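Final report, closing paragraph on structural work. Over the funding period we assembled a curated collection of sequence-structure pairs, and we close with a single example.
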Amino acid sequence: MSQITIQDILPLVQKPSRYLGCEANSIKKSWNEVSLHFALAFPDLYEIATSHFGIQILYSMLNEQKDILAERVFAPAGDMENQLREKNLELFSLESKTPLKNFDIIGFSLLYELNYTNMVNMFDLSSIPFFTSQRNINDPFVIGGGPCMCNPEPVADFFDAIVVGDGEAVILKITSAWKEWKNKEEKTRKELLQAWSGIDGVYIPSFFDVRYDESGRQLLKAKYENYQAVERAVISDLDDSPLPGAPIIPFGKPIHDRLRMEIARGCTRGCRFCQAGMIYRPVRERKPEKIVSSVRRLLEDTGYEDLSLLSLSTGDYSCIASLMDRIMAFAENEHVAISLPSLRAGSLTPELMTIIKKVRKTGFTIAPEAGSQRLRNVINKNISEADIVQTVEDAFSMGWKLIKLYFMIGLPTETQADLEAIIDLVNHIRKIVKEKGTRGKINVSVATFVPKPHTPFQWEPQISIEQALNKMKWLKERLKTTDIQMKWQDPRVSMIEGVWSRGDRRLNRILIDAWKSGCRFDGWTEYFNYDRWISIFNKANFNPQIFRDGVDDKKGPLPWDHIGIGVDKSYLENQNDLAIQEEITLDCRRGACSSCGVCDFKKTKPISFHKKNDDLLADNKDADQADKLPSMTHKYLVKFTKMGIARFIGHLEMIKLFIRGIRRAKLPVKYSAGFHPMPKISFMDTLPTGIQSQDENMIISLTEAMYPEEIITRLKPQMPEGIEILGCSEFSRKDTAQSHDRIGYRVKLNDGFFSENDLKSFFEKQQVYIQRTDKKGKAVQIDLKKAVEMIEIIDGQNLRMVLKKVGNRIVRPSHMLRSLFTLREEQLQSALITKRKAAYV
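Its predicted structure, as stored:
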């Protein structure tokens, strides 16, 4: 039997496009022509992983180096994991399908603690030893990075090295040291780790011994005198940080299906619960003229129709209104909508709303966090109820229909009065919405506060599950109206997150137990199993409460004390004291320095561009605006194939793929009218996932006439592997009339045989009915005998057929094969079906 490959198992999983690796702007290099093979790993599903901006940056940076190859690998879904284990295949990279263990360096991006078990699963699927102490000279070096690594101790033993801080500042130093080490005739893994330990921001866990004091607190002792602690790596000027050359455009439905542009890093608001606001200091804004030029280029490179301006607080960017106005000068004509995902009440001004709604109104979320002003002062959320109310009034006055409000329960010093204040605030907003007469809706999201390392609340206790559930229930009972929808995060998830957030190395072995017990994707509600986690802790004789109770002695050691993120521990203590006193600290971007310890005001300092700098944009302004699109329509019929690996791209993915390819090709496509304008393209057939085709047709409407040859020339380079543009002509009605009358197919079985007796039995029957459901949900019977023009078995594994419409309904070859032949479902799923022109079947 021939060796099983990824092509053999893709038909057997639900979303095969997750594993194709041939997306637009993906990079494929020759494995043998580079010296270093680097795998960028993300321990979550494709839809989450492809949206991570950090991986996009590192992917671009590494592949720009001629002697480095960087490829991606993500956590496989459960069905793919089962197939890999059943077929004895190892986890592979997306681009070249190379087993993960064959890479020289594997870099994991860790954004969420409940993904740790996915990471362990990826190790196991790759036959890579779990712990650094178990790896030899032939194993890959495994590096961790991301915000979770500001307390790396719960997973420290898994990593040879850990990057703390901005990965762009470190990655090429790491690869350079590896290449020097690789060229040595005799070498050990420890020698490379010693070289890496000399790089700012690199933590080598094995260079520290672990013990515990009488109270059970972890104490680390450095093995080397010159390596006592690790200081965060920082990109001093964000304009020195490279942007992705041409971001990969994912298949499927990524959680962020848009162009993402980081306009600033860091935040100076000083919210005392917010880890990101502490570990990404100081605020560093990208130059506005660089943002504008980069957005223009990247929109052309991707074909995206949505743009998201990224920052911890986008509305705080110093000249945000003029920046957006400048972007809209060209984006509006290209039907590109802008969203600001991290806005604070008070920063979403009517001016910004006017700009946002030019193309279409994107949603927005306001995060009061707490209902009362007292508690907002405790957490240093520098917004007032007046700010919140004014923002809501402005939004609904300008046509918005939905507002999302985000709150937390269990914050330090919270009382019943603070919960009642949430109800009062939501009802106040509800009253405003009703007064505007817009029939608007309010979505309220509530989560349980999780204390995080390196924040002023890192010593605080986390409320119990019982307390959290009671608070959630109390809120839901009082927000039970038709125009308010309340959602909450399961407090049990927050409890497990809290354990891993503030844990130490005792959790390393427990993580293996959790993985063995079946823990996967615990951040997803459908997979999380609280009872399983409690059973794991009990079997390990471990009390998770020790990491949830809080710490009374602020001077005592914490598991993450050796990780310096720049903010002084004394500053965090002082902020904790101010919280108890209900005193606020002003935003240092516009006020006095709060002496957090991050800035030396030489190399590391805040960078912002205030309104006086708006003239920076002047030189880049368009001389004139593009004219409105003409009303005349020119239609063209585009013929293409969908062969090989492209057959695993679903129909909705195909639509998106062509829309963005058309935008990158700069074809003058016509848009529909209305609230959400869309390019006017249509496909003559909805080809099911898994079927390949030599004969597909698409109709495209343009606003101006073009030579068909020019359309072909522009479109061809935008198509992924397996999709070839065959031809283009002016569209006529007869093209539609002839398109679906009769369709020919070839079928090749990879397993099993076609039976002549089965086929004979089919022809001897008067009728063969199958039942399908129409668009209205009604059951409809179809006689397959009427659908068959010809079926012929070529040999035991090959068949050809021509199918006709029955009434207005298309019969798929899979329906025919299931009804005619006694084949197992897996045999049918793995069959290669090729759609052909009927005349050439």
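DSSP finds 26 helices and 29 strands in the chain. Residues 612-630 have pLDDT under 50 and may be disordered. We thank the funder for supporting this effort.
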